[in-house]
Amino acid sequence: MSREHAAFLARAAVKAADEDHRLKILRATSTYDAAVAAMKSPATGQFADWQSARALAATIKDDALARLPELLARFEERIAARGATVLWAEDAGEARRHVIDIVRRHRVRKAVKTKSMTTEEIELNALLEGAGVELWETDLGELIVQLAGERPYHIVTPAMHRSRDEIAALFHERLGSPRDAGAEELTMAARRHLRQAYVTADLGISGANFLLADEGAVVMTENEGNGRLTMACPPVHVVVAGIEKVLPRLEDLALFLPLLATSGTGQQLTCYNSIVRGPRGEGEPDGPERMYVILLDNGRSALHADAALRQSLRCIRCGACLNACPVFRTAGGHAYNTAYPGPIGAVITPPLRGLTEWSHLAFASSLCGACTEVCPVGIDLHHLLLENRAGAVQAGGAALRWKLAMRLWAWAMSRRGRLDLLRPLARPALALLRLLMPRRLRARVPALAPRSFSRLWRARR
Amino acid sequence: MTERISLFIPCLVDQVCPEVGLAMARVLERLGYEVDYDPRQTCCGQPAFNAGHREEALAVATRFVEVFGGGANDGGRGRDDRAIVCPSGSCAAMARSFFPALFRDHPLRERAVALGRRVHEFSEFLARRGDIERIDGGFRGRVGFHDSCHARRELGIRSEPRAILARLEGCELVEPGGEPVCCGFGGLFSVKFDAIAAAMARGRLDRFAELGAGVLVSNDPGCVLHLRAECRERGIGLRVLHLAELLDEATGGGR
Asked: How large is the average pLDDT for residues A251-256?
């Protein structure tokens, strides 16, 4: 068992027994479910046919992935023509070096940042803090987890695990707002806290929801306006974007923006949708003087080369699979210890970060398929988990006792005679084993019946 | 003319809860089917398949194909087209939905896929044959139905078991609303991640208990055993039954 596996089990067991956690997540996902259902319904929402919309989205993403090098080259050429610098990063280390170079070149001491999972992936916050840069998270959810000293719980709603009361207590302590502040007061406290940061920061850091090849543009969606301020106020803007984010055409947003808003938060559209085509141009009143786009591979090319797993690159990071996943909701987002938790995290983390340490995530699923059912780009998530499991076993990742157990099982199950032969031994052996098990596990392992169906059927005739 | 059908008794039913298989056989016989059981059958291979052990899964699934698609019932011609009925959505899904992946590039692929198409989950089989209207029985009480995830999402079985329950006199079906959630069984998942699996079962049971259900029914023996175990652990007075068991009880009881 890898260290991450053991840690996952320990953290998950704590959350599984935490009734307060269960209720908070239940409340959050119930609100989300109702909003999403309304958006998907032809009567109250914006999709005449949700299933066709997701099929079309899958087709567009597959086409983009099939032409990935060409589209990325076009994106680079067009955004560079307007003065942005495109930097390629083979892995997290290279992306981090790019960021440090930029920080040094522009003597950055203070940075504002939007919510971005790629920056989580390359662990940018710790990097910048280590380099002496004061980092301000500007997304409300991210600010909450930053002030609490945590990592994001969820890829769209980072503070999903925090109740309003907890946030009020945190803000009271850190930002001086009243202890019993309501949602609006808390938002205002965050706003007061952040406003000055935008205008005094030397650097704005964001992710990207999409990259447009034809426009050479970065697209960002958000609900708080913090993204716009982050991208526009500081003199330097750095975008960290996964290479899979590219869409061929501007028109594709007509589908992808409502798709993402619906699956992400149950909205028609997010409140702010920005299309950034480069740094401040000649005669433009605002925007950064310099813009860098770091295109992050970090294992994505390996996923791209894998016939089965390539479809995982369709992901638009909406978080719907996390919300639908009963394992995520029970174990909690922090149990995973990955930038991407939940079903999509379990699909991409083992191949991206190593089978030895991370394969347990592929097994941490009941294969219920709720994730696949809700994925707006039709990723066959739970079947890809099966692929990952087979891959892990093939790579020699199974424990010896499981290998032997599977061998014995297959031998016995290949002939009725063998099964019947082993049964008189297996039944008392299992009974003994159950006695030795901890109670919780014993409850999960059933005893064998006194007589098998096969035997009873014979007696019945 | 009486239709002959074959029983596919999953390993869990064979070894752990044979009463589920017997109940299903009795119900099918009461509906006029001639029920055959080939004792050479063992398992469809799903436990190993889900654990990622494809080689072992293939060995056991190959035996499954030999037994059910080997021509034993039609003088060795291998053109048996008899329906195969199974009390598990998950095992039926293994044969129907997952054999194509398991037998990928395998010489038996075609036979395995053709065989998979003949496999039906119990409630789905009754619905397809138009048998639901012929069910004559009663079951007094508030009954919750817990969907087997594989039955629901791999095989698309949603209305069938509910239609069966609605057919029973005195049976009041209660639904928690929203998308049905997994009970946390998931085969070896429930052993390897027992704390998560138990909490998932608890969440599910609570939803039905809130609605005042006295009986909880499912169409998968795995879900039934898992939920039953959690009831025992927590002293919840909910009776958990397989759909076939309830139907057997409702239409005449075990004889």
From this structure: 98
Nearest CA in chain A to B191: A444
pLDDT of residue A403: 94
Of A327, A393, A413, the CB nearest to B43: A413
Q: How far is CA A263 from the centre of its chain?
A: 13
Nearest to A326 among B60, B181, B194 (CB): B181
Query: Which ipTM did the prediction report?
Result: 0.95
Q: With pLDDT > 90 as the criterion, what percentage of chain A qualifies?
A: 95
Binding-face residues of B in 110-139 toward A, CB within 8 A: none
For B64-104, what is each residue's pLDDT tens digit?
999 998 655 555 555 578 999 999 999 999 999 999 999 99
Mean pLDDT of chain A: 96
What digits encode the pLDDT tens for the residues A176-202? Answer: 999 999 999 999 999 999 999 999 999
Using CA atoms, how far residue A90 sits from A84, A296, A298, B76, in Å, is 19, 6, 6, 59
Of all residues in chain A, the one with the smallest CA distance to B97 is: A383
- CA distances B133 to A206, B26, B217, Å, are 61, 17, 20
pTM above 0.90, yes or no: yes
* Residue that the structure tokens 């061998």 belong to: A407
**Average pLDDT along chain B:** 94
Nearest CB among A33, A390, A458 relative to B39 is that of A458
Taking residues A61-86, report their average pLDDT: 98
Q: Distance, in angstroms, between B69 CA and closest chain A CA?
A: 15
Tokens of A264: 């992400």
pLDDT at residue B33 tops 60: yes
Q: Which of A228, A231, A241 is nearest to A204 (CA)?
A: A231
